[in-house]
Amino acid sequence: MMNKVKYFFGAIVSVPLLPFLYFQGKNIRKKVPKLPEAKEPKGFINGNFNKTLNILSIGESTIAGVGVGHHKNGFTGSLSNTLSINLKSNINWRVYARSGYTVAQVCKKIIPKIEETSTDIIVIGMGGNDAFTLNSPKKWADSIENLINLLQNKFPSTPLFFTNMPPIKEFPAFTKPIKFVIGNLVEILGKRLQNVTQDRKNVFYYNEVITLKKWSKKHSLSKNNSKIYFSDGVHPSELTYKVWGEEMANFITKKIPS
Predict the structure, then answer these.
(1) In the chain, how long is the greatest CA-to-CA distance?
(2) Which of 84, 93, 108, 252 lies at 20 to 30 Å from 244 by C-alpha?
(3) Could you report the per-residue pLDDT of 247-258, keeping only the tens digit for each?
(4) What letters, b where the CB count within 10 A reaches 16 and e where it falls short, cover 117-156?
């Protein structure tokens, strides 16, 4: 109930800002370079272990590796490297993602294209585009439910792991009004994601809010230069993908039976 009130209050406050935000958004799009998705969406981590786990990662631009040249240097590569060590397994990984897609588009255009008939772990990274398009919490929750159902029908026994929501309030390329409106909305979507996933069997959401201050302290990184975390002011840098992948892998490790 509080999320609904917060969303509608935020929507009312935001209405007078919309024309202003529209022009600010156009200006930001002109300044932010259009980076391509990463190459080579398949990989194998050979740790010389006796077992091999198969991983699929699904999502929007961050999972598509925008900001790095190859997926092995992006989120899925970092995730797989850490999981290989943590779970003492070789990792066979594959990425299914597209920059700009909302959850509804992933359901319609990506899930039907998944070629695998079995996999051990599925990791999903979404939220940015649904916030950027001002998707309502209700539509977002419905789309998440649909995504979970589609994946569980296809992979009945495979655990699903949702990553943290993107830290939009930290994006250097965004103005304060855009950070306020979109940043607050993405936090509301995160709370709805928590509500949807908490009662679903074999579905997990890493709900820790990403803040650069916390990351800098935890990983002994620069506290005064937020630009090191971003490739273009919006998408992650290779450093961020490395840290984020490691953090997500550690979360998954705690949920996987040893």
Answers:
(1) 60
(2) 108
(3) 999 999 999 876
(4) eebbbbbbbbbbbbbbeebbbeebbebbebbbebbbebbe
